[in-house]
Amino acid sequence: MAANEDRTLLLEVDELSGALNYASVDIPSAQRSQLQAGPAEHDDEPGTSGMNTENHHYIGEKQVIGTRFLSDPCELPHVCTPSTVANLALRTSYKVLRDLRSDPNASSKPPLRHYLDTIRSIDQDATLENDLRVRVVDEYRGDGFSHKKRAIRKACSTGHTNPVTMDNIPSYLANLWDGSAFLQVKEHGMHVYISDSSIEKACKNALSVLVADAVHSKAPRCVKKGSQLYVIHGVCRGGFDVPLLYAIMEKKDKQAYETVLTQLKTHLLRFGADLDGLHIVVDYKRAAIAAIRTIFERSTLQGCSFHLALAWKGGEMRSG
Domain MULE transposase, which positions (predicted)? Predict the structure, then answer.
């Protein structure tokens, strides 16, 4: 091929073997448009080097100068640039999931944080016009976070190497969004989680009742059998129920309950709770009752009728 001579590449298809071969030929401009439109219905014209266009498929012009290609002859015959709102949102979603899978620290944030960060990045994308940004954000949101939560969580877990245990708590579980501590007590066989914000809001809205109960089926798998998730809710003005404390407990003796209740009392006093007028509703576990009488000595202790029936049935009230 002579230097500085413009040539055009054609893609030859071998009808027997199906192999693809590139042929470099001279094609006049008029003939190029006919080839792009489809096979010619007339005989070959001068300049096609005797090539029958019915046996070849022209997929685009590839210019060559000397022995140097100006572009990749094997590239796709079109550019995959999304233009519609749906395609832009879909491409964004694919890119986010791909980046999360390749990020070893992706699991340090909860899925909701990644979801909101994606919406924020779209809203701040300077390459999109204002109206288009709003529409792409709406399209990406779709039916809400619940429809993307599973995919985001799966992508984050791809690079996750350290499982969550009682001794290994990632920052997104130990801390809240504002950076404040959520995990207040971390001991062997015990975690206590309290949100200062929840305690503060409950105290400002006339916290009057504490309701404590344990759930055994929701304890983490990493703790020993028989452990419990101990939850304390607060009832505020108007009957609104607010979760105040979560505790994972392997031991259920008086000392363990005192550790949990001491943390709650400290936070309540910090935000001005009236402990004298506080009513505490509990089940009939003796260790829990004894700990409450020790820690909340000025509060009123009440039993739950539902748990009383369970206690009678289980024979736990035989000794009074």
Answer: 224-308
Confidence tier at 78 by pLDDT (50, 70, 90): low
pTM here is: 0.55
What six digits make up the tokens of 147?
């429809």
**pLDDT per residue as tens digits for the range 36-64:** 444 444 444 444 444 454 555 545 555 67
Length of the chain: 320
Cα(197)–Cα(23) distance, rounded to whole angstroms? 72
Bridge partners (DSSP) of residue 302 are 281
Longest dimension (CA), the chain: 112
Q: Please tell me the distance from the alpha carbon of residue 125 to that of residue 140, in angstroms, as a whole number.
A: 14
- What DSSP string runs through 72-85? -TTS-SS-----SH
**DSSP for 129-170, written as a single string:** -HHHHHHHHHHHHTT-GGGTHHHHHHHHHHT--S---SS---
Nearest to 115 by CA among 103, 135, 90, 97: 97
Stretch (H or E) spanning 121: helix 111-123
